[in-house]
């Protein structure tokens, strides 16, 4: 198959695609391809060869240049899934910030975060905007509320110390290499749009570290989080789950939970509860009240959660986007 020819593997395309998909989400500790242990840069260099059209090949080549340029003045930790050294470097940075009582923010960006940039694009992306709002919050926002959210989230992205961005692994999984353009593939189109927005804003981004957008799934396992607890003065969890639902382990660290309205897609919402867009400023005020230097703040609140991460980091806390 087309992806198989990157690695000269003798296997059916369907089985290889399935393997790629399964391993992308499960994050085997040995990497997305355990038997190959391919690095992000190696996969990225081979992606153009998969394209069956010149136009798509050109787009993928531009994508490769973006990753190279973005990380010229920052540390590229795009292989934390397979390189323990990269994982250790990032975790050590988090611990150092906690110990020194210095603020730090890690924000992850996937196709959903393109929502805030779509808002700035206006009417041309209105259908996409409406689709996401109904999926997340079961309501359509007015322009004032949308614009407010977009400004807050983009500000958080700009100020982040570390960003998780769409990776070559994600593009390899999602791209239909027989197409003429990534623009012809809805999900990949959003990922590409996000990449282009970051490229436009490159000079204003504060990030010192770049990781892949799913990094939280193998950076912050239970053992890892408990280890971070040991370095923290206190821990604050921001998300839709209660302390009881989370089943938090016993630990000596002071633990607080700031609960947000559940996203509609989780099927946990209460029709009498206001959706997060209408109460997120109140939630941010609580984060601001309780966050402090030396605090570890774990946030899982969708696109709006990025604003909570910024709020916590500005109070001197270490705030991490854990999904």
Produce the secondary structure layout.
Layout: H1 4-7, H2 13-26, H3 40-46, H4 54-70, E1 75-76, H5 84-99, E2 104-108, H6 114-121, H7 126-137, H8 143-159, E3 162-165, H9 168-174, H10 186-200, E4 209-212, H11 216-219, H12 222-231, E5 234-239, H13 243-246, E6 254-259, H14 276-290, E7 295-300, H15 305-314, E8 318-321
Parallel strand pairs: 1-4, 2-3, 2-8, 3-4, 5-6, 5-7, 7-8
Write structural notes for this entry.
The protein contains 15 helices and 8 strands. It has 323 residues and is an alpha/beta fold. The protein is globular.
Features of the shown structure:
323 residues; eight-stranded parallel sheet
The helix fraction, in percent, is: 40-55%
**SSE pattern:** HHHHEHEHHHEHHEHHEHEHEHE
Provide the low-confidence segments as ranges: 1-35
The oligomeric state of the chains shown is single chain
**DSSP E strands, number:** 8
Strand line-up in the sheet with most strands: 1-4-3-2-8-7-5-6
What is the straight-line distance between the termini?
A: 33 Å
The number of helical runs is: 15
């Amino acid at each position: 198959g087309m992806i198989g020819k990157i690695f000269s593997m003798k296997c059916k395309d369907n089985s290889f695609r399935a393997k790629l998909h399964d391993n992308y989400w499960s994050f085997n500790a040995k990497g997305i391809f355990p038997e190959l242990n391919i690095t992000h840069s190696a996969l990225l260099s081979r992606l153009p060869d998969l394209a069956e059209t010149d136009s798509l090949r050109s787009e993928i080549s531009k994508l490769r240049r973006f990753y190279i340029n973005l990380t010229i003045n920052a540390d590229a930790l795009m292989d934390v899934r397979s390189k323990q050294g990269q994982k250790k470097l990032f975790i050590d940075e988090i611990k150092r910030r906690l110990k020194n009582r210095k603020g730090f923010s890690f924000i992850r960006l996937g196709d959903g975060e393109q929502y805030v940039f779509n808002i700035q694009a206006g009417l041309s992306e209105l259908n996409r905007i409406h689709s996401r709002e109904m999926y997340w919050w079961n309501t359509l926002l007015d322009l004032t509320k949308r614009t407010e959210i977009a400004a807050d989230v983009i500000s958080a992205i700009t100020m982040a110390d570390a960003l998780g961005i769409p990776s070559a692994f994600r593009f390899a999984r999602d791209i239909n290499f027989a197409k003429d353009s990534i623009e012809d593939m809805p999900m990949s189109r959003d990922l590409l749009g996000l990449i282009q927005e970051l490229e436009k804003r490159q000079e204003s981004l504060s990030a010192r570290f770049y990781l892949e957008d799913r990094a939280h799934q193998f950076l912050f396992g239970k053992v890892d989080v408990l280890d971070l607890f040991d370095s923290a003065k206190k821990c604050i969890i921001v998300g839709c789950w209660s302390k009881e639902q989370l089943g938090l382990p016993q630990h000596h660290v002071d633990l607080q939970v700031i609960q947000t309205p559940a996203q509609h897609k989780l099927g946990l919402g209460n029709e009498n509860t206001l959706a997060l867009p209408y109460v997120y400023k109140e939630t941010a005020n609580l984060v601001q009240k309780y966050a402090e230097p030396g605090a570890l703040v774990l946030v899982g609140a969708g696109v709006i959660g990025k604003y909570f991460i910024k709020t916590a980091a500005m109070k001197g806390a270490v705030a991490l986007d854990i999904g």
